[in-house]
């Protein structure tokens, strides 16, 4: 799989690190105490097929955070943007 970095151009997957789903909203209570919202955010995930937005880190290049939209069924990269 190849990812197009807006700063460096097209690069191999080995330069990037997947971070997390960019569509999930982090709970706003700070996380100092365990709550059902944090339990759901950390442990419960839907395994959806189709296009998903994800955070990726370009550690082997420009060190930028990117939002990669890709089809998780086929691994096709649909778009890459800077958050």
TrEMBL record:
Signal peptide start-end: none
GO molecular function, a single term: sarcosine oxidase activity
Stored Pfam families: SoxD
InterPro entries for the chain: SoxD, SoxD_sf
Domain of life the protein comes from: Bacteria
Protein's GO biological process: tetrahydrofolate metabolic process
Gene3D superfamilies referenced in this protein's UniProt entry, alphabetically: Folate-binding superfamily
Name this polypeptide is given: Sarcosine oxidase delta subunit
Organism from which the protein derives: Acidocella aminolytica 101 = DSM 11237
């Amino acid at each position: 799989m190849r990812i197009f970095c807006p700063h460096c151009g097209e690069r191999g997957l080995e330069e990037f690190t997947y971070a997390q789903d960019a569509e999930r909203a982090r709970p706003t209570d700070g996380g100092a105490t365990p709550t059902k919202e944090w339990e759901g955010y950390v442990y419960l995930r839907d395994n959806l097929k189709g296009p998903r937005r994800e955070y990726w880190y370009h550690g082997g290049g420009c060190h930028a955070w990117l939002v990669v939209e890709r089809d998780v069924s086929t691994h096709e990269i649909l778009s890459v943007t800077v958050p």
